[in-house]
Amino acid sequence: MRISIALPNTVPGADGRLLTEWAKRAEARGFASLAVTERLVYPGHDPLLTLAAAAAVTSRIGLLTNVLIGPLRTAPVLAKSVASLASLAPGRLVLGVGPGVREDDFEAAGRPFAGRRAAFEEQLELLGRGAEAGAGAGVPVLVAGMSSAAVRRVVRRGDGWTAPGLEPEAVLPFAERVRRAWSEGGRAGAPRIVALARFALGEDVERESAAFVRDYFSVLGAEAEEFVAKTPRTPERIREVVEELAAGGVDEVVLHPTAAALSQVDRLADVLLP
Asked: Does the global pTM surpass 0.90?
């Protein structure tokens, strides 16, 4: 299974210098990919611009949006951005994309929340046409979401599925559902399955990590504390989560940091990489 790490592009305290140093260090330590996530109204760095900066300071490591909220942009704008990034980092980009779930992001973008699903379908169709549509030929597309519609989109338009940051017991049954639908839909081979897991390593970042997770999920009310409690914070728990996902057939796990400290790259590499 591929082991990847996300850039802290939505974590408070992560400036541009940290992001580029993080990218270089992650490549040097042997992570498979660098990932970014997206919230428009939450402080942080734009995901596509962040990956462009990472592409400029690295040469081998993969680049993954995990995930991009597609309908915050029109289909042509998204297609051009994808094509541009794919050109800047040939063969390295994978697009994890979903329709979005938070209305405040759409209000801020001036985009209709109610129409996001139809807009997302249009985007997937355009991305599937690749170079013909100026959308970045050969860029794999991973569809996000845990719904019947998400499964249909994977089978019709995607190269695989990317899971939200939930525990393995929630992710793995849905991954199997995606695989079954893929086979029943007549697709060759198997869908690429990517899972997300948050993490923090070290007593020196515990408070920062908990504060970020609590704030990021504050929209969920009291449930935010569950996300704080379930964030893996020990080498043993991180290995346990990764091993469970690997046993369930996940192709790649992306560890998302919850603290803006460069130490997290080396600490995670020491736990998971040879």
From this structure: yes
